[in-house]
């Protein structure tokens, strides 16, 4: 019988099925970690390495090739949408703890701060949150809208070649429905058709575009393309995904698709050559708190390109936000009118 990792998986009621390392009864995922200090990889903080192996690791990290390729792109500018460093401590509670790397307040720090409150202090905090929520969200109402075009798609009357998950599709359809109700799609003239094959590069820049931030697999754009007809698509996402909508989108002969694998924090939208000067609609689904702030700054700020101050010709913006526990004062945009 083939040797297997000896790590017991209680939820699956069996041992791990991976092969063990040569010098260990466990596989690479379950080998006990060394007591030596582990630190986040400077190239990709989603994984960590032994501090003593850091020099060796950064030369061989799988993320290195992608990072080098990204740094050569004209639209890459490290931290361009991150906010000003002087705003780090601009919040009422500050934004950092002494000695913490990059002066960033982590989710763990926030949890510890809440856990350290006394019962009266915690109750007072809850009352403040409820009071602020009531004052700010008094005029906000639930708005679930599904247009006729999306309803046809959902009912299967449009050929779908993507995994169908009803919960997400209904959310996407409602986003588009609210955009139509507020005149965003009509103002953007989504129904305008163009034959992109017959356009030169300069003329293509005059065709309206859609930029989806935090696109993931791109299903929101897929629904927009199927139901309303779009000609140019830019998908902004820092991670790599399987089962993307790209394959289905590229089968549309009249549609131009470009995927930008980059963090929104580092994206200079003005420097995307194929988008420069084009009117565009910015959309996003499930953008976390800081990603929403980064997107607003990316779309609405003026940039200096080759000595000329340029402002993106944005025609509309629709973002469905997500969790806010990652928010930092550095990224927060409190007053767009004064900032832009």
Automatic annotation (TrEMBL):
Domain CHHC U11-48K-type: 38-65
Alphabetical GO biological process terms: methylation; tRNA processing
GO molecular function: tRNA 2'-O-methyltransferase activity; zinc ion binding
Enzyme class: transferase
Keywords: Metal-binding, Methyltransferase, S-adenosyl-L-methionine, Transferase, tRNA processing, Zinc, Zinc-finger
Catalytic activity entry: adenosine(4) in tRNA(His) + S-adenosyl-L-methionine = 2'-O-methyladenosine(4) in tRNA(His) + S-adenosyl-L-homocysteine + H(+); cytidine(4) in tRNA(Gly)(GCC) + S-adenosyl-L-methionine = 2'-O-methylcytidine(4) in tRNA(Gly)(GCC) + S-adenosyl-L-homocysteine + H(+); cytidine(4) in tRNA(Pro) + S-adenosyl-L-methionine = 2'-O-methylcytidine(4) in tRNA(Pro) + S-adenosyl-L-homocysteine + H(+)
Top-level taxon: Eukaryota
InterPro entries: Methyltransferase_TRM13, SAM-dependent_MTases_sf, Trm13, TRM13/UPF0224_CHHC_Znf_dom, Znf_CCCH-type_TRM13
Keyword Mitochondrion: no
Alphabetized SUPFAM superfamilies for the sequence: S-adenosyl-L-methionine-dependent methyltransferases (SSF53335)
Enzyme Commission identifier(s): 2.1.1.225
Keyword S-adenosyl-L-methionine in record: yes
Known role: tRNA methylase which 2'-O-methylates cytidine(4) in tRNA(Pro) and tRNA(Gly)(GCC), and adenosine(4) in tRNA(His).
Family: Belongs to the methyltransferase TRM13 family.
UniProt-recorded name of the protein: tRNA:m(4)X modification enzyme TRM13
Organism annotation: Eucalyptus globulus (Tasmanian blue gum)
């Amino acid at each position: 019988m083939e040797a297997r990792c000896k790590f017991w998986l209680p939820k699956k009621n069996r041992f791990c099925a991976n092969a063990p390392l040569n010098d260990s009864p466990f596989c690479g995922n379950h080998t006990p970690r060394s007591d030596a200090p582990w630190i986040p990889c400077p190239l990709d903080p989603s994984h960590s390495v032994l501090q003593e192996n850091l020099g060796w690791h950064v030369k061989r990290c799988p993320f290195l090739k992608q990072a080098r390729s990204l740094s050569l792109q004209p639209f890459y500018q490290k931290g361009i949408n991150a906010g000003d460093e002087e705003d780090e401590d601009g919040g009422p509670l500050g934004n950092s703890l002494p000695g913490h790397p990059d002066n960033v307040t982590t989710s763990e720090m926030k949890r510890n701060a809440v856990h350290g409150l006394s019962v009266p202090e915690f109750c007072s905090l809850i009352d403040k949150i409820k009071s602020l929520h009531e004052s700010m969200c008094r005029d906000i109402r639930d708005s679930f809208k599904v247009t006729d075009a999306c309803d046809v798609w959902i009912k299967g009357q449009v050929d779908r070649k993507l995994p169908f998950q009803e919960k997400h599709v209904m959310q996407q359809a409602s986003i588009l429905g609210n955009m139509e109700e507020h005149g965003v799609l009509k103002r953007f003239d989504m129904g305008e058709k163009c034959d992109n094959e017959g356009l030169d590069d300069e003329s293509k820049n005059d065709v309206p575009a859609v930029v989806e931030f935090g696109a993931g697999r791109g299903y929101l754009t897929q629904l927009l393309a199927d139901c309303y007809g779009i000609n140019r698509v830019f998908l902004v996402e820092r991670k790599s995904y399987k089962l993307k909508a790209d394959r289905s989108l590229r089968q549309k002969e009249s549609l131009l698709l470009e995927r930008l694998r980059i963090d929104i924090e580092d994206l200079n939208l003005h420097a995307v050559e194929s988008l420069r000067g084009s009117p565009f609609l910015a959309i996003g689904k499930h953008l976390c708190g800081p990603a929403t702030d980064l997107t607003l700054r990316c779309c609405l700020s003026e940039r200096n390109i080759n000595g000329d101050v340029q402002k993106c010709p944005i025609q509309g913006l629709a973002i469905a936000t997500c969790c806010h526990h990652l928010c930092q004062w550095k990224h927060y945009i409190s007053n767009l009118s004064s900032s832009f």
